[in-house]
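Sequence in, structure out.
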Amino acid sequence: MSKKTIAILTIVISLVIDQASKIWVKLTMRSGDEFMYIGDWARIHFVENEGMAFGMSFGAGFGKLMLTVFRIIAVFFITYYLSQQIKDKKSSKGFVFALSLILVGAVGNIIDSIFYGQIFSHSEGQIATLFPAEGGYAKWFHGRVVDMFYFPIYRGVLPEWIPFFGGKFFEFFQFIFNVADACITVGVAIILLFQKQFFKEEATQVIQATSPNP
């Protein structure tokens, strides 16, 4: 499979899954609703935030707009770099795959930020409707990102003997995220884990260029 095919399939499939899951949650759940699907530690818990990954917030208004604009600029840079890696015969297919995942993550949350405020009604105390007659809940570029995956594997007070945190309530994993967030995390993890293989050729070229001639 060519690097171009890998990139296209990764982007299209991941983006469809990301948006389909978000739209499903918006049209079937109210903000704060949840249900469990594996024991009591794997849940779908619907929350919305202003755009940072894993349920974190960057602030509303101007801060939200700046975050969206920054993401759009980042997407252009990632897209350009990805296209260069696809053309480069020496680049790794694994690196192209990882970059494609990171690109999906950025684009997926940008779609929420740009469009969701206009095409959905709000979800506070009600199930949202698509294309409401009265208009959406926010202006263009001010939509909230939909998160839903929640894995509170451990929740409780830590033993007193643990330094600094002993006797305090602790939850793992407390963050709520979406498919786009997961794509970014997996993409970055792949690059960190396999960076030696991905950048071996570049490192060899740098060493050869800087080594003194015999």
